Amino acid sequence: MPHDFMPGLAGVPAAKSAVSDVDGGRGVLEYRGIGIEELCAKSSFLETAWLLLFGGLPTRSDFDRFARDVTRHRRIKYRIVELIKCLPDQGHPMDALQAAVAALGMFYPGRNVADADNNYWSAVRLIAKLPTIVAAYARLRRGDDCLPPRDDLGFADNFLYMLTGQAPDDVLSRTLDACLILHAEHTMNASTFAGIVTASTLADPYTVVASSIGALKGPLHGGANEEVVQMLRDIGEPGNARPYVAGLLAEKRKLMGFGHRVYKVKDPRATVLQGLCEQVFRKCGASPLYEVAVEVERISTELLAGKPIYPNVDFYSGILYDKMGIEADCFTPVFAMARVAGWLAHWFEQLRENKLYRPDQIYEGEHNRPYVPLSQR
Ligand code: ACO
Questions:
Q1: Mutate to test the pocket of ligand 1, among 254, 310, 331, 339 (most ligand atoms within 8 A of CB)
Q2: In ligand 1, which atom is closest to the CA atom of 312?
Q3: What is the pTM of this model?
Q4: What is the third-level CATH fold of 224-323?
């Protein structure tokens, strides 16, 4: 049956899902029916991860067990550390993360994805170990030893500790936890789709997540946050924002951290992140990058008037991560540490009513061409 071709599958449903919903016209994002603003104000990343994975808020005992399970599985095997040590220092941390996550599947095969218990432990391991891998690569490439996780620290505090070696500031670790909530899930985006395509082959969950990490890396998706901070540094000060933005738009180039396939208003995650910036910079000192960002948003809104192009989740997140001592090329790995919860929730859904993804194409090539021998070409 012929279908209209929709480039980028824009507007084409690829799955039925109850994990999250976006209203792009009103700027609303809900996880399992709960608004992200409320989750950021009242929940924690681990509680939100449970909500996404299992469909409702956990009871106290469910939550305690899940938090304990994740905490106990944060360590990575020394051979994974050895693998990370062998990777080039100049490589991208997303590539290191993808390689290490794919390798995890060799240590925890979990090939029987019909086994719910096995799948629970795979989800726990992936959520628990991604931060340890990200921190290990960040430290090893600059010549520092990697630090083992500390069981007395919460999810976000422990990550900042493993990364910097410092006991984290309470404001910053609570802000990071909120950032992880905001990045944990976002309906059928490119990386989630990549993951469920792989999941539909009944591949193991480590391969599923490695596929998603690969898709998240690109600058049109999660990789934009790294480029935003570079752009803000290039602009340097608020007064340079107008000529910079005007020049970029005149050259028909894209402003990183702006625009979204679904949102036609400001991304609600950008609004929450901007509020977090205000809180953090009030308590921990101003950030010149933030002042530039606010001016870039103001000028862009003016120059792009009439086009539905507003800040997305990647616009303000990097500024906060920079304040936490996270290097720019680790912003997308931090995004992945959060989004793994959403990827796994969609993996669970895919397994429940699995059908192998095998879309069609519109063939535009030739037929019946003769083979010309090499000697005659
Ligand atoms: N800056 C300037 N113009 C833009 C931008 C932008 N950031 N985004 C879209 N536009 C313009 C395009 O030039 C195009 O204009 P035209 O109709 O005059 O040719 C129009 O808006 C439509 O743009 P498309 O790229 O076709 O729209 P699409 O829905 O494919 O874009 C995307 C979505 C890829 C996110 C785009 O907005 C973009 O490239 N943004 C910059 C990268 C970015 O921030 N990515 C992170 C997205 S959030 C996330 O994935 C976590």
A1: 254
A2: 48
A3: 0.94
A4: Cytochrome p450-Terp; domain 2 (1.10.230)
